[in-house]
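Hi U.,

Before I forget, here's the chain from the pilot set. I'm dumping it here mostly so it's searchable later in email.
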Amino acid sequence: MRLAFMTNAFAPLVGTIAGVTTITENGYLTLDDEDSLLAGVAAAGYSHFEIFEGNIARYADNPEAFHSLMAKHGVSLQGVYIGGNFIYPDALADELAKIDRITALAKSFGASHIVLGGGSLRAAGIGATDHDLLADGLNQATDIVEGHGLTATYHPHLGSLAETPDQIHTLFAKTKINFCPDIAHLQAGGGDALELVKQYRDRIRYVHLKDLSASGEFLPLGKGTLPIVEIVTFLKETGFDGDYCVEVDGYAGDPAEAATTSYDFLKGLLV
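Structure:
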């Protein structure tokens, strides 16, 4: 078991500029230099990190620089988060090509996990076949990721085709991809995070931990209402041997404090 921190807590999230017009270059990007991001991870006590696709793509032509940053801060890459639309057949081949390219780069940096998010919501609403299209895209992406020797998981998310419990059930009945529960997104989407973790236990290979207030604000671990101890205890008692990642994106407070508070909360539980 390893514990990482997601670097998106430390700076605003944007999309890569080239992705506006080029699907193969589209992706998430935390808007800060990677030196600062990894310094924040290390300062809070974590030895592993997760990062967005756009941040490692910056080093495709200079991988030695990213290896040097990891060595400088004494941290290792655990996972990379990749976003996609997945429901537009004409664009899917380019999205899969991006996933292939980013996964190969992630592997070269030592990553074990590729977390896939997305599943676009159309302006006209969810189409009758959209979950089928998303499932097919995720199945193909799984084959690509596993072909590189990494673990592929899907992250249900607010504002996607897998927001509510019913949508999550519909999707996972159609796809073979593993499940990355983000317990705050599951709860905020109207679900019971603990029950969803129990229901999909056999498909969980990676877990995103964050807390949630009663009003729906993402919070550092232990500052909200979610049964984090119960969820981790259940996973441990059922032999879970995968990895965890703390994610505190969207928090209105100090990100460095959020990272440290969350690490301290997990002492005696995971660290």
